[in-house]
Amino acid sequence: MIRALTLSLATLIASALPVWAQPNAELIEKGRALFNATSLSTSGQWSCASCHPMNGHTDNKTYVGIEVVPNGTPAGRSTPTLWGAGQRQANWSWAGTIPTLEANIRGIIVNRMKGPEPSGETVAALAASVRSLPNPPARFLKSDGLLADGAPADVRRGFAIFSGKGGCATCHLPTSYDKKEPEDVGSGGVFKVPSLRSVSRTAPYFHDGRFGTLEETATFMFAFFKKKTGSAETLNRSEFLDLVAFLRAL
Known about the structure:
Layout: H1 2-16, H2 25-35, H3 48-51, H4 53-56, E1 62-64, E2 67-69, E3 77-78, H5 101-112, H6 120-131, H7 153-163, E4 179-183, E5 191-193, H8 214-229, H9 237-249
Antiparallel strand pairs: 1-2, 1-3, 4-5
Helix pairs in contact: 2-6, 5-6, 7-9
């Protein structure tokens, strides 16, 4: 009964959208073409793919506007991956204040790329394309984001630490390993909790790209967790390496 009502509601919502805003293969394909269109920027030099190459991944750079700046620049914002974006729980933008993907896309085009106001159809197509991007294969994860039976021992131990005394699962929840609400983790303000899926490929880390390695990032976050919660837990070197092994498996 509940499932039937859910499906009926989804059908009703879809039917209320303009035809061009209803997700379908044609709309997704149009979005993929627009993703590479430099005509979205006033200069004709920038497209979505400029910062999100390889079909929506990250260029691993930090920007102020469209200018590349050194990692760790306070006003800088590192480029997140869009892989698996359709499964994200978090709000959009590093500030975590934009509730819809469509609004975020429109803001990127107008405010960062300095392009003309995009049409509703353009925004809908780009959003459909982004939402279609899957997470990359993670050989040791099941579809629900939890560990598969064949995961190596260090990855299994790391998952136990991640879910337990490491405190990571407080904010990074399967399957997308993020959280809807932004958080202040002592990095200079309140920012989005990023997804940890494919995190080994998305350096530099944090909103401003201040950390270049997972080891640095995990060290900072464990220290913050202990300070915030008053935890007396410690991680020895072996436990820390297991935690990083799990992060690399996501």
